[in-house]
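Closing statement on the zinc ion sub-project.
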Amino acid sequence: MRTLRNAFGTAVLVACAALLGCGSNKPPEFKGGENGEKVRVVATTTMIADMAKRVGGDRVTVETLMGPGIDPHRYQPTNEDRKKIEGAHLVFYNGLHLEGKMTDIFEKSKGRIRAVAVAEVIDKKDLLEADIDGGSHDPHVWFNVTLWAKCVAPVRDALVALDPAGKDTYEKNAAAYLAELDALEKHVRAELAKVPAGKRKLVTSHDAFGYFGKAYGFEVKGLQGVSTASETSTKDRKELAKFLGEHQIPAVFTETSVPDEGLKAVLDTCQSDYKHKVALIGGDEALFSDALDAPDKPAGTYAGMIRHNVKVIVDALSK
Ligand SMILES: [Zn+2]
């Protein structure tokens, strides 16, 4: 038994060493369009992958590490991920401690990978403070469309620096994407204006919507904090049930990347303690928070995801 355990311990150590990287000391060379080579991009989240595809167009291939339904706060990077990260010409990640464990790999692989934390270009004064997995700012910046648009520049600039022959393409693509995001921002504001002032309370599984609330005038509350890596207590659930009961909130929203058992327990407490029934918005109407839907689905793009969330919120809260 002891031998088995030792063997297992050694295997774990070897896997960890591999995960922390022991490959070449330089990022892979990009030879440009010489042999029709495309820029190999790796993105952590689906939102960033969508942006990289839009800006990179057909000069890039984009691989996503955390697909639909994946919670980045709890995600444990695999050996396969490390290989993808070290094999990429460019790695785009959110930063601001969104990627929990994966952030360690980026920091430890510095010099051996070209990694860009897209959300870290945002001016600190525009960031919300939060206590999260070793960081001090809320990482969910994509829920303010105007703020997310600021993350296009670092993606464009990194592509231009690596592949100067594609400069015109990247600049044209980025400008087109920014114009689309500008139109999206207008759509969001026009739709959300339909929710009456007294009903602007958005309650979700975890605190992903702080930027949404600040930008568009909603009070937001999550059962879990800004990261899902912490557990909720009975006290948290009772407090949220009280909030729902006292404000007669009609609906709360589940998220596709977070289990909904906790919210269900809150609604049961609200029903028994405050005699107030709250609708649980889930299934096809669950909000996309930290991951998009599959790429072939309407909410499989960033703009599609925002439109889906806004429609669900307006339908549930403006009744
Ligand atoms: Zn989150």
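The chain has eleven helices and ten strands. With this model delivered, the sub-project is considered complete and its resources will be redirected to Aim 3.
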